[in-house]
Fold this sequence. Notes:
- The structure holds 2 protein chains of 2 kinds.
- Helices cover 0% and strands 55% of the residues of chain A.
- Chain A has no helices and 11 strands.
- In chain A, the strands form 2 sheets. In chain A, strands 2, 4, 5, 6, 9, 10 and 11 form a 7-stranded mixed sheet that branches. In chain A, strands 1-3-8-7 form a 4-stranded antiparallel sheet, with no helix packed on it.
- By secondary structure, chain B is an all-beta fold.
- In chain B, the strands form 3 sheets. In chain B, strands 2, 5, 6, 10, 11 and 12 form a 6-stranded mixed sheet that branches. A 4-stranded antiparallel sheet of chain B has the order 3-9-8-7, with no helix packed on it.
- Chain B is globular.
- Chains A and B meet through strand 4, strand 5, strand 9 and strand 10 of A and strand 5, strand 6 and strand 11 of B.
Amino acid sequence: GAVVSQHPSRVICKSGTSVKIECRSLDFQATTMFWYRQFPKQSLMLMATSNEGSKATYEQGVEKDKFLINHASLTLSTLTVTSAHPEDSSFYICSARDHQGTTYEQYFGPGTRLTVT
Amino acid sequence: AQSVAQPEDQVNVAEGNPLTVKCTYSVSGNPYLFWYVQYPNRGLQFLLKYITGDNLVKGSYGFEAEFNKSQTSFHLKKPSALVSDSALYFCAVRARRRGNTPLVFGKGTRLSVIA
């Protein structure tokens, strides 16, 4: 099946610094990628939807200037957490949708655990 | 707006017994429905989906789910649970329409299979 990778898998950063998380679709082209955030023992909350070559669409309550999303190619999307604070510590999961053929599921990356100290 | 309800935070079942993880949904029109499983500190793994056709959908690892339109439910089932099935299970729905509608997830149900 389709594979989505994320890098890094874990990152610890100091408060006030920025962190970039990469999401790649390894064997398919992803016109659309989604970024989710998951707090401990909670569900996945959609942060934003990004389409290749255009600006991301952010969900209500998600600060677009804080969570910068770039989807410059059909296989790569990045999420940059700017000026990170401890409350940004979370598990971030990206997802990509394969628009070829008739598949409908989203493929998920393994997640990135961000810890802000 | 789309929504998914998983009424049970935790389901405990003895190994070898049948298991059911409940899911109900709300969406305009006909839905696409999915089940995913998550192991600790890992991403989501796809189990099965309902797109159209037979209401009983068979998926990975012996899991199956039944789409019930009248009850707007998509319960996950397995005839005989294994200890290795212990994980966090998410039901998700997507509206069946044009555009890049995202998956909306339930809050998850933690399944614990006891040996």
